[in-house]
Structure formats: structure tokens, C-alpha cells
Amino acid sequence: MKLKKFTVLLAALSMAISMTACGPKKSAEETPAPAPDTTTEQPTADKTEIKPEDGATLVIWESKDERAFTDEIAKQFTEKYKVPVKIEEVKPDEQVTKLTQDGPTGLGADVVIFPHDNLGRAASAQLLLPNDIFADETKKNNTDASVQGVTYNNELYGYPRAAETYALYYNKSLVKEAPKSFDDVIAFGKTFTDKAKKKYGIMWETGNMYFNYPFIATTGGYIYGKNGTDKSDIGINNAGAIEGLKAYQSLKEILPVKSGDITPDIKRSLFNSGDVAMDITGPWELNAYKQGLGDKLGIAPIPTIGGKAAISFSGIKAWYVNAYTKYPNASKLFAEFASSKDAQLLLNSKVGSVPTNKEALESDQIKNDPFVSAFAAQTVNSVPMPSIPEMGNVWAPVNAALPEIWDNNKDPKEAMDKAAKQIADLNNGAK
């Protein structure tokens, strides 16, 4: 009797196991969206199974300058995945701040794009989903520097799409040969600049630290020590930085314009009309300048400062997925699709960007382009912006100090000592 009961029990148990093993499995799109706490380890999905969620629609934040690319890549994505995409214009350097406010309320974009120096702040606030499904593909296909730039605390978050630095644009009909040094720039400017006629030998955003970092770093300054990771070591006011900033200040002689009166639109108009002979800016202006100057356009590395090759900031611009998105699968698919080899070549053709995809870099489209090659040459002498959250404390103080030096002829040491103290106070929690 006991044996009969045992046999019946065993049969029931076997049937239960069988039903469990053969039961339906949830597809990727049926899996609930992960909570925004990215510190919890999530199982990695198989990229071959990922599909957009039913009824998914996406909002993408993009800059005005690169909107032409995103309009096209969004159209291609919708054609392939049948997911509608809406694009909203938000400046990349403002997106993390906006996402901090809009993400938790459900108003943020599903996919955002910003320079890598904002990554630490976004990741620390748990605003982003890791790049998990496409991690191996991202690491394999892109340059080591770009992968490093979109990684924080050993976690890959971004989907790299472009490497950025800036270089010297010049009008070949006005400048026969690109100047080698800023002394050469001053010598030319003295023969060309005429403030009354609004003609200037060179123009760049003199109040923006991003474009003026060469005057800090080339002669020995830096933002933070230990390759940008030590917030307690601030180097914007050391002897090397002050030496370079004195060279910066001397250029006011050939660019007698207030820093607040130099905007990208004004500068672009003057350069394209031939009233500015040289400009320091990034690859996002390439398309507009090629249209404006045609064969007269030249690009070269930034002139030397104090006899040394100019050190510019470099940054990796990448897509990131909002941790609060309702459609994580569709968002990750878009970020991957819009950062592929073909997407990066499209971006290059639209705005002149420098790819991070290794195959794209080896394509004829890139290798035979003298302009992209010039940016690549400047990249050799560039350093990545720090990505620790405290990088966000640097911009406002330095961007306030530079106009003081430029517009009001303030002593560089005094202005940068003040900025360094403000940064230190912010790093230590001062309000």
C-alpha cells in the first residue's frame, strides 16, 4: 500500500516538472523594464532575441547642429523596426541636468546624447541603463579610447558615435599657409584685423573653457591630477597654466571683441563671408564651412603655444539609454543602430564628424578626407576631459574667469586662483 502511494506521488511530481520545463517562456519584449537602480546586477539578454516592446515609441534628444543626421537615422530605424521616433532639440551639455529633472517624472527622452565628461554625474545618479546587450559588440567595433570614455567605474554605459576635438579652420585665400605658432597668428592678425570693418585675423569662443583648454594645458596646467581622477589636485592656476593664459590674453590685440559678443552664429557668418580669416572650432562646423568656402577651406592642428604642440580637449560623444524609459529594448536597439559603422559614416557625411568605429575609420570616405585627417592629427595631442562627477564643478568658475581675463584684462593668476577656490569649495560640498 505504501509502495502504491509512493508511485502515485512520484508520477505527480514528474508531471509537474515536465509541465514547468515545457511551459511558455517570456520573450525579451515581455520582460518588465528594469528599475532605475543600475547597481543591481541584471542578467544579460541575448541580442539576437531583443525586439522592441509592443507599442513602443521613442523620444530622442539631439543637438540642433547634428539634427540632419538624427532625422535620417531615425527614419531608417523606424523603417526597420516600425517604432516611431520623435526628436527634441536639447544641447548635449545640458542633457544630464535636464535628465536629472525629467527622468524620474517620465518626461525625459528615452535616448540621450552627451559628451563623456558628463558620464560620471549621470551614472552616479543612476540615470542610465548599462550597455549590456551590445557590450561585446561595442567593445569590439570601437576604438579603445572611445570605449574607455563611455565606461564609468568599470561599467559600460555608452554607445560611442564620434570622437571630438577642435582644430584651426582657415581661409586659404587669406592665409596662404596655416600658422605654426600663435606668434605667427598675431603677426598675421596685425596685418588683417580692422575692428571698424569687423574684420579679424582669428576668432574663437574666448569665454568657453572647452576651446581655451590649450592655453591651460599646453604649458603645464590641467583640470584634475592623476589623469583627471583626483578632485583634490586642481591645476588650472599652477605656473604652467598662468604662462599659457598670458599668451591667451595677448591675443586680444588682434581680436578686440568682448567674449560675450562671440557666438557660434556670429563667428560662422564672419568666417564664411571672409571677414574672419581663422577659427578654432570642432568638426560639427565642417559641413557649413565647406559649403561657405568650398576649395578655399583649410584645416590644420592648433598653433603651438610657448613652442609646444597645443593640447586640446578631446571628448567622446555617445548615445545613452535613460534608466526610466518605458521601452528599454527599443531604446537599446536605437542606440546601437544609431552608432553602427554605417550610422557613423552617415554622421560624417552630414556634419564632418570623426568616427570611433574602427572599420569606419579605415574606409575610403574617412582616409581620403583631408579635413578629418587634420582633426585626427590634433587628436594625437589631445587629452580626454575628466569624467568624474566633479568635472561639472569646473565649467562655471572657469567660464567666469576667462571673460575677466579677456574682457577686463584681469591678472590671470588672480582670476584662476579665485576659480580654483570655487571649484574646491564645490567639490567639498559648498552650496
UniProtKB/TrEMBL annotation:
Ranges of biased composition (kind: Low complexity): 30-43
Residues covered by region (Disordered): 24-55
Keywords per UniProt: Cell membrane, Lipoprotein, Membrane, Signal, Sugar transport, Transport
Matching PROSITE patterns: PROKAR_LIPOPROTEIN
Membrane topology label: Lipid-anchor
SUPFAM superfamilies with a match to the protein in the record: Periplasmic binding protein-like II
Domain of life, source organism: Bacteria
Stretches with biased composition (Basic and acidic residues): 44-54
Alphabetical list of CDD domains matching this protein: PBP2_Maltose_binding_like
Signal peptide, first to last residue: 1-21
Localization annotation: Cell membrane
Family, per entry: Belongs to the bacterial solute-binding protein 1 family.
Alphabetized PANTHER family for the sequence: MALTOSE-BINDING PERIPLASMIC PROTEIN (PTHR30061), MALTOSE_MALTODEXTRIN-BINDING PERIPLASMIC PROTEIN (PTHR30061:SF50)
Protein name according to UniProt: Maltodextrin-binding protein
Organism: Paenibacillus shirakamiensis
